Amino acid sequence: MTGSHPPATAPATTPTALSPTAAIVRYQVADAARSFAFYTERLGFQPGPTPRSPAFASVVRGQLNVLLGGPGTSGSRPMPDGRRQEPGGWNRIVLYVDDLQAMVTTLRGAGVRFRNEVETGPGGSQIQIEDPDGNPIELHEAPGRR
Fold it and tell me: Within a domain: residue 3?
């Protein structure tokens, strides 16, 4: 592998505890077990350092920790003004991959939802997929990788 980003299938080192300087993203999900399976089986994440429960799971890929909070977790409670925290939106994590086309083929074969087709520009090629709850994930291949 070249470059500084691991491929999507690279094994991750699971930290024993979350560092205050760790990169952490929280995604709202409807089913923590289903989301845990998606991230570990489809995107090469490893189980995170936080114990799983029926309403919560965490996964890690390199230095990125993703908290998957389902209904009933403190991180999914409504805001004081009544707005509900829901999956989806356009902010997303970006996973660098060595072979975007191969990854797209594999994920399409597994029935993963895509938001768009591969877009290519001066910064490389990317495509957006959704986790089982509609949270976006961008898969990105740097220019000149192949």
Answer: no
Q: Which residues contact 146 (CB under 8 A, 6 or more apart)?
A: 99
| DSSP element (H, E) containing 41 | helix 32-42
* Residue range 80-124, pLDDT digits in tens: 999 988 898 888 999 999 999 999 999 999 999 999 999 998 889
- Among 60, 102, 68, CA closest to 85: 68
- Per the structure, the count of domains in the chain is 1
Q: Cα–Cα–Cα angle for 115, 116, 121, nearest 5°?
A: 135
Which H or E element spans position 39? Answer: helix 32-42
With H, G, I as helix, E, B as strand and everything else as coil, classify residue 33.
helix
Written as six digits, the tokens of 74 are: 């403190």
End-to-end CA separation in angstroms for the chain? 11
**Domain assignment of residue 45, yes or no:** yes
State the DSSP string of 71-128.
TTSGGGSPPTTSPPP-S--S--EEEE-S-HHHHHHHHHHTT-EESS--EEETTEEEEE
Q: What is the pTM of this model?
A: 0.77
